Amino acid sequence: MIHMVKLCVGVSSIEELESYRDERAHWWDADYGEDVHVHRTRMMPKRAAEMEGKASIYWVISGVIGCRQPILRLAPYADEEGKTYCDIIMSPELVRTVPYPKRPFQGWRYLRPQDAPPDLGANDDAGSEVIARELARLGLL
Hints:
The chain is of the alpha+beta class. The protein is built from 2 helices and 7 strands, in the order βαββββββα. Strand 4 (64-78) and strand 5 (84-90) form a beta hairpin.
C-alpha cells in the first residue's frame, strides 16, 4: 500500500475543506451517483492498484498535513479536447491527523505508510489539535 499527499490549494483550514466536499464533484461534472468526494488531478498514479480501497490522500493545508481521506478508487477522465485526467474518488469522511509540517510542491507525491502522520484519537482532548499544530510549527513534533 502507498498513500498520496497533495496540496489543498486555495483552502486555509480543514473546516473550509469540509465545506467544499459536496460542491467539488459538481464543479467538474463528476457525479459518481454516490456520497463521495471527488478531486480531479492531471496524472493517473502508476501505483494506483496499491491505493484503491486501501490508502488515503493526505491533505496539506497552509503548510501542514492536517487530515486525510480514504481513497475508494481512481477513475480516468478525458475532456472534450482529449486531455486525460484522474478522478480521485474518496470517502466524504475527513480524518484529522497529528499536524505534520510539509513544504510546498507541485502535483501530488506518494507517501509511505511509515511516513504518514498518525490519526488524532477520537478521545483526544479538544485542545490537543491546537497544541500539536503549534509543536509541529516549532519543529518539535
